[in-house]
Amino acid sequence: MALFSKLKDRLFKSSSRLEAGLDAIVEEGAGAEAGASSENAGLAAPETPAAPERPAAPEAPVADLPAPGSEEVPAAAPDLAQLGTQEGARSGGLVSRLFGRGDSAPRRVLDDEMLESLEELLIASDMGVDTALRVTANMAAGRMGQKLSVEEIKRLLAEEVTRVMEPVARPLPIFQKTPQVVLVVGVNGSGKTTTIGKLASQFRAAGKSVVIAAGDTFRAAAVEQLEVWGQRAGVPVLKAAQGSDPASLAFDAMVKAEEEGADLLMIDTAGRLQNRQDLMEELSKIVRVIRKKDPTAPHNTLLVLDATTGQNALSQVETFRKLADVSGLVMTKLDGTAKGGVLVALADKFGLPIHAIGVGEQIDDLAPFDPEDFARALTGLSD
Ligand SMILES: Nc1nc2c(ncn2[C@@H]2O[C@H](COP(=O)(O)OP(=O)(O)OP(=O)(O)O)[C@@H](O)[C@H]2O)c(=O)[nH]1
């Protein structure tokens, strides 16, 4: 599974942090339990814990980008006995390696103290308090008193993370109406321009005609950068005189895209900090003006979030949702960050679709969001 291994490699920092933490938790209480895994073999499969309530999924639109492989997600609780002997031996962390393979994997009894350590680890991995508590409660449901190895805990955690992420894993919907207007918003440097370039390239490859509008009319460098991405993707970039009204550029771009029969119009916007009221009002104006041309537009408002900002991503979603009708998220810079856990918190709290994730700076470094792959990469589970 090429994509999975690529994602796993790139999420190494998140998974290594979690993995080291899990190793330490089990190691802490494993002394007396090491080598006692055969006692685990008779464990009944735990009851499937109740999934927390989530917002209803929107109607499934026609999807152009590859849909995530949600059908691959296992529905049943894992067979712990089997996990202990097979998977536990395969990759394991430091503890598994020290203690050898299979049956000799150290285990720790799941009690309140261990649960608390797990909660703290997940909070430190940027999942946020509420989500960490919910995830650990579900992991523990029906399993208190059982002896678990690191690999088993990873598997349970991955299963819970998958459960949280599954409802939000949706490719960018493609509508019949053209031009489909995709407004791209986010704070400075979150990766809007790069993401537009990557998306434009993928849509072009899928046979769609795309036009990009350079909505950051104040920064010449931003326009230049977008033009570079336009060239890479083979897509025209519409721009206006420096300092002109971005709302009027957006309107002109809609007229042009319609004239040219474009399938998609992607509008880049200036990066704006949540606390800059003037910039936030400018964004509302762009939306109002776009709607004069097409009351159903923008058809998608993508909020681009930088994974390295960790928990701050939550407040960005809150602010941008108030101003623009955010319809979906793209999380960039998941490569090389130890803060991948924030994606779980976002999914748990807002239930907004995650259309794609950025895993690098190159044009093809935008992957569809696959919850199972993500959960496995985050927890450091072996293939
Ligand atoms: N490693 C990594 N870098 C990324 C990713 N996406 C974007 N970047 C980098 O992040 C930096 C900012 O990206 P931009 O696309 O310019 O961000 P922006 O939101 O358009 O920035 P402003 O126009 O200043 O608001 C650039 O150096 C990109 O190469 C990603 O997925 N991974």
Structural class: alpha/beta
The name of the CATH architecture of the largest domain is: 3-Layer(aba) Sandwich
The level 1 CATH classification of the largest domain is Alpha Beta
CATH topology of the largest domain: Rossmann fold
Low-confidence stretches: 32-101
Largest sheet: 8 strands, mixed
Count of individual domains: 2
- The strand line-up of the biggest sheet is 7-6-8-5-9-10-11-12
Q: Distance N terminus to C terminus?
A: 8 Å
CATH superfamily of the largest domain: P-loop containing nucleotide triphosphate hydrolases
* SSE succession: HHEHHHEHHEHEEHEHEHEHEHEHEEH
Question: Which ligands does the model contain, each kind named once?
Answer: guanosine-5'-triphosphate
What is the overall silhouette? elongated
Strand residue content: 5-15%
Outline the fold blueprint.
Elements lengths: L1 H9 L1 H19 L31 E2 L16 H6 L1 H4 L3 H6 L7 E3 L2 H13 L4 H12 L6 E3 H16 L7 E2 L5 E6 L6 H14 L4 E5 L5 H14 L3 E2 L7 H14 L4 E5 L8 H17 L6 E7 L5 H12 L4 E5 L9 H9 L3 E5 L7 E3 L2 H9 L4
Parallel strand pairs: 5-8, 5-9, 6-7, 6-8, 9-10, 10-11
Antiparallel strand pairs: 1-4, 2-3, 11-12
Helix pairs in contact: 1-15, 2-6, 6-7, 7-8, 8-15, 9-10, 11-12
Bound molecules: guanosine-5'-triphosphate.
